[in-house]
Design goal:
The complex is a heterotrimer of chains A (685), B (101) and C (168). By secondary structure, chain A is mainly alpha-helical. Chain A contains 26 helices and five strands. In chain B, helix 1 packs antiparallel against helix 2. The longest helix of chain B is centred in the last third of the chain and has 31 residues, at 58-88. The radius of gyration of chain B is 17 Å and the shape is elongated. The chains are: A mainly alpha (685), B mainly alpha (101), C mainly alpha (168). Chains in contact: A-B, A-C, B-C. Chains A and B meet through helix 26 of A and helix 1 of B.
Chain lengths: 685, 101, 168
């Protein structure tokens, strides 16, 4: 769909990822001594400045793109050649088209805000510098992911964010559980990455067989038609590649069944949760599908899988969220659910709405996480909502921003979430069918319920915290509340960028127009009336959810037991235990691997060591044999020689009589002998 | 009338007596005396042949060398004998058999 | 028998020489042997003169009698107590020596008989000193120098050997 007529070559794009990388390197190598000598301020400045500059540069790129004619909006910054093997040619190059520009702004903008928040949140931590080193490294990796112009460069960023996620989740590694959470995140991600790699290989291999082997996005897009009619193991290649790549997205964006790492990832500091597990890293999968949309459009079967997985995730995660008591876990399952919505949108072909929801989600989910961080900070580390309550009096700014973001996520009219979520649901109904829409709508209702449950439990009613905690309850410092305000404002306002068709009288859909060069202009083609009906239904479901939460947790008129005891308490237990996903995985995969490892260890100890020890014994035996040979044979020979010399010597010794007379006789005999000899030999001379 | 053969006979007799003296003596000095006899016999040979052949003075020069060497050898021999006498208090060659194997 | 004076002198000298030699060989007294050797030397010197080697005869007397013989006598005196002079030169194994000496004698006579040399006629006698001197310094200069080295070595050796070892 994208006919790139001209590529504008620039040279400033590379600094957007490279500045955070430089700062990460500096902080990583010298951070400890800088922290000791100059204090936290130096580290903060060193860390936040590059991100701010990157944000400014991203805005510059946006402006430049806006200035170009609509179909020529493509900036390319070629840095260096990278791989040139056979027909594989990949260079290190950063590209910016409208889609990348959106992602860049989200990453650097929201990321920058969270950096400033982290200055306050991580204050006083012993490893302050290590945190910011990894935080910046993450920014570099994420920016490489969104700005890379080839699948390989994107994969570099993909792996990089995985690594930083591991390092930051397990930041407080002295606590073994937190360290394990980091490992879990990395390992589950790896399964997805494996699929991603298979997708890249298969794609390149097929394209290469057709004569156009490449992994650069615009070249793949130009040659995507070559995949038609090609099969691998009986399946169309496009579908297989799409599914493999989606496997990577399932891991990275925490879709069912690889979602299990995200709730555990809450063990990391809250800024990490906000940045990585709400706004950026987890959205990488969604971005990838958007980036490769031309491939997915050619593989409708893969898209169907994406949509179904997304819808299922949206609903199932929402059901788990209603029973959680940890403030961050609620938000974690909420994130999984919202990611499901994004995948659902991509799956029905509504790429624009998926990216739009990604965009709005960054704001309100980021604000929600930062707000929860503020609550935890004010409560002195408490995270269980059952021990909170009535905090709106003590932490007003946190409360108001949290409330606004909750309204956004619940889809309150004219908030950002309202526009993006309803857009998705409309497209799902129009292009995906009733089942998908229903799942989404139910999920929306549950979302409203558990989010307002959270608000009522934390901020309203009587404070259930202990005496000591209540004493220390305080609002967070400005460096933490200002980001909250900014993000909350975004949650209210950015929605207006993406007005749905039936509200078209209010203004154009700027977001859609901006992304048109990338995605084209597909539409469900629903009538305005249908859309209004759908919106009304989802609004009423949300409203029902809010009301139920109100009754249960504010007025207390409906007791939670009504639901937890419903149907023998089994649904509640299933939901509370997150459908036992972790337990099943542990029993099937983890234990099997450990058994295999033990078998291997036994094999090594008995078989391999046995062989080694056996060969050592054989060598010792052999050396003994040669020793006997040496002693008996060789020494015998030497001794015989010396003995015979002594023997002959003693015999020959007898010539020395000591008698001079005898010697004289010998002399005379010799002379006579010579004379005779001469006479004989020279006879006749 | 006196020809070469006569001198040769004298020389041979002297030589044989010298050999006999060397082989029979017990006294170390006696052996040395025998050696002098032998050398003198050789000298007579040289001079005799010199006289009865065409060579100018070769034989006599040789004889001079022999005399000289005899002197040197006698010197050293006598020094050794004196040394032996100092060590063993005797110059009986039968008694000196320390180098017996 | 047409004996000239020369022949008589020769026979006399020959008898002196051989007789003294027999004395040297058979005497039981070392001092007697030593003095008999003097007789031998003098006889040999005379024979040289009859052979026309006048210089050599003089050298013979000087070196042998005046040097070597005196030296030997010194040694004899130094290596004996005066009382032991009588039986100081016993013999060992006379018979085997006799056989060997006779064998040597026979061998030499055979060799002499076999030799084919042409004896030229005796010419008149001339003084030989000049000729020998010249020969020594022209044709035989190398052996001459070597001989002097040998003498030097002998000198040093003699001094070395007769040193009194200082053994503490």
């Amino acid at each position: 769909m994208t006919e790139v007529a001209e590529i504008t070559v620039v040279s400033y794009l590379r600094w957007i990822p490279l500045l955070p990388l430089a700062s990460a390197a500096l902080n990583g190598v010298l951070g400890a001594s800088i922290h000791k000598r100059f204090g936290e301020r130096a580290i903060s400045a060193l860390a936040c400045a590059p991100v701010t500059i990157s944000f400014i540069l991203a805005c510059v790129a946006l402006a430049e793109l806006a200035g170009l004619p609509e179909h020529d909006r493509f900036l390319l910054d070629h840095v260096a050649p990278w791989i040139a093997i056979g027909s594989l040619r990949v260079d290190i190059a950063f590209a910016a088209d409208p889609l990348t520009a959106v992602m860049m702004l989200v990453v650097t903008g929201v990321g920058g805000i969270i950096h400033y928040y982290a200055i306050g949140y991580m204050h006083g931590d012993r490893s302050y510098w290590r945190f910011f080193a990894f935080f910046n490294l993450f920014m570099f990796a994420m920016l490489t992911l969104v700005m890379g112009d080839s699948l390989l460069l994107m994969f570099v960023g993909w792996e990089g964010v995985g690594l930083c996620s591991y390092a930051l989740i397990g930041f407080w590694y002295q606590d073994i559980e937190k360290a394990r959470a980091g490992s879990k995140a990395f390992i589950v991600n790896r399964i997805g990455d494996f699929g991603f790699l298979l997708g890249i290989f298969l794609l390149f291999w097929t394209l290469d067989a057709a004569g156009h082997g490449t992994v650069v996005f615009r070249e793949i897009e130009a040659n995507v038609g070559l995949l038609e009619g090609r099969f691998f193991w009986g399946f169309p290649v496009a579908v297989l590649v799409g599914l493999f790549l989606f496997l990577g997205a399932v891991g990275k964006s925490a879709q069912i069944p690889l979602h299990v790492w995200l709730p555990d990832a809450m063990a990391g500091p809250t800024p990490v949760s906000a940045l990585i597990h709400a706004a950026t890293m987890v959205t990488a999968g969604v971005y990838m599908i958007g980036r490769m949309h031309f491939l997915y459009s050619a593989a409708p079967a893969a898209l169907t899988v994406v949509a179904v997985v997304g819808a299922t995730t949206a609903l199932v995660a929402a059901t788990i969220g209603v029973a959680q008591n940890d403030i961050k876990k609620v938000l974690a399952y909420s994130t999984v659910s919202q990611l499901g919505y994004m995948c659902l949108a991509m799956g029905v072909g509504a790429y624009v709405w998926g990216i739009f929801h990604l965009f709005t989600h960054a704001f309100f989910k980021g604000c929600l996480f930062l707000g929860s961080g503020s609550v935890i900070h004010g409560m002195g580390g408490e995270q269980d909502m059952r021990n909170m309550g009535g905090l709106r009096r003590h932490m007003p700014r946190t409360f108001w921003t949290f409330l606004i973001s909750t309204l956004a996520i619940a889809g309150a009219p004219f908030t950002a979430g309202f526009f993006s979520k309803d857009g998705i649901l409309a497209e799902a109904y129009g292009r995906g069918g009733l089942g998908l829409w229903l799942a989404g709508a139910l999920g929306a209702g549950l979302t409203a319920f558990y989010m307002f449950r959270q608000v009522f439990m934390v901020f309203f009613g009587e404070c259930r915290a202990g005496e000591h905690t209540r004493h220390h309850l305080h609002e967070s410092p400005a460096v933490m509340t200002v980001p909250l305000v900014i993000l909350a404002a975004g949650a209210l306002l950015v929605g207006w960028l993406g007005l749905p068709p039936f509200l078209g009288f209010l203004g154009p859909n700027l977001f859609e127009a901006w992304l048109e060069p990338v995605f084209g202009h597909p539409h469900a083609g629903l009538s305005h009336e249908t859309e209004m009906v759908l919106t009304a239904i989802s609004l009423s479901m949300a409203g029902a959810g809010v009301y139920l939460a109100y009754r249960m947790y504010y007025t207390g008129r409906t007791s939670p037991e009504t639901f937890s005891e419903f149907a023998g308490g089994i649904p509640y237990r299933a939901v509370y235990n997150k459908y036992w996903f972790d337990e099943v995985y542990d029993a099937v995969f983890v234990r099997a691997t450990m058994l295999l490892a033990k078998a291997g260890a036994l094999c090594d100890r008995y078989i391999i060591d046995g062989i080694v020890d056996g060969s050592a014994t054989l060598t010792a035996l052999w050396s003994r044999v040669t020793g006997i040979f040496d002693l008996g044979f060789i020494d015998g020979a030497v001794n015989t020689i010396s003995d015979s010399v002594l023997d002959w010597g003693s015999r020959l010794r007898k010539v020395q009589t000591g008698s001079i007379n005898a010697y004289l006789y010998a002399i005379v005999a010799g002379v006579v002998g010579i004379t005779i000899l001469r006479m004989i030999w020279f006879a006749g001379v | 009338m006196i020809g070469l053969e006569h001198y040769l006979v004298v020389s041979v007799l002297l030589f044989s007596l010298g050999i006999f003296c060397v082989l029979t003596r017990r006294n170390a000095l006696g052996i040395l005396l025998g050696i002098e006899l032998i050398l003198n016999a050789a000298n007579i040979n040289y001079i005799a042949f010199n006289r009865y052949s065409g060579a100018a003075y070769d034989g006599q020069v040789f004889a001079i060398f022999v005399i000289m060497l005899a002197a040197a050898e006698a010197t050293i021999g006598l020094a050794i004998v004196l040394g032996i006498y100092r060590s063993f208090r005797t110059i009986d060659v039968e008694a000196i058999d320390r180098l017996r194997g | 028998m047409n004996l000239g004076v020369g022949d008589v002198i020769f026979f006399f000298l020959a008898a002196l020489t051989v007789g003294s030699a027999m004395f040297v060989a058979f005497s039981r007294n070392i001092v007697h042997s030593a003095f008999a050797l003097m007789g031998t030397f003098l006889g040999v010197a005379g024979l040289y003169v009859t052979l026309g080697a006048d210089f050599l005869g003089a050298v013979q007397v000087l070196v042998y009698v005046g040097g070597i013989l005196v030296l030997t006598l010194f040694a004899v005196m130094l290596t004996h107590g005066i009382g032991d002079v009588q039986v100081s030169n016993r013999a060992i194994g006379r018979l085997p020596a006799l056989i060997v000496a006779a064998g040597v004698f026979g061998l030499m006579v055979t060799a002499a008989g076999q030799g084919k040399w042409a004896a030229r006629e005796v010419t008149n006698v001339e003084p030989t000193t000049e000729g020998i001197g010249e020969a020594l310094l022209t044709t035989y200069v190398l052996p001459f120098e070597l001989a002097s080295v040998v003498l030097l070595a002998a000198l040093i050796a003699a001094v070395m050997l007769s040193r009194k070892e200082i053994r503490e």
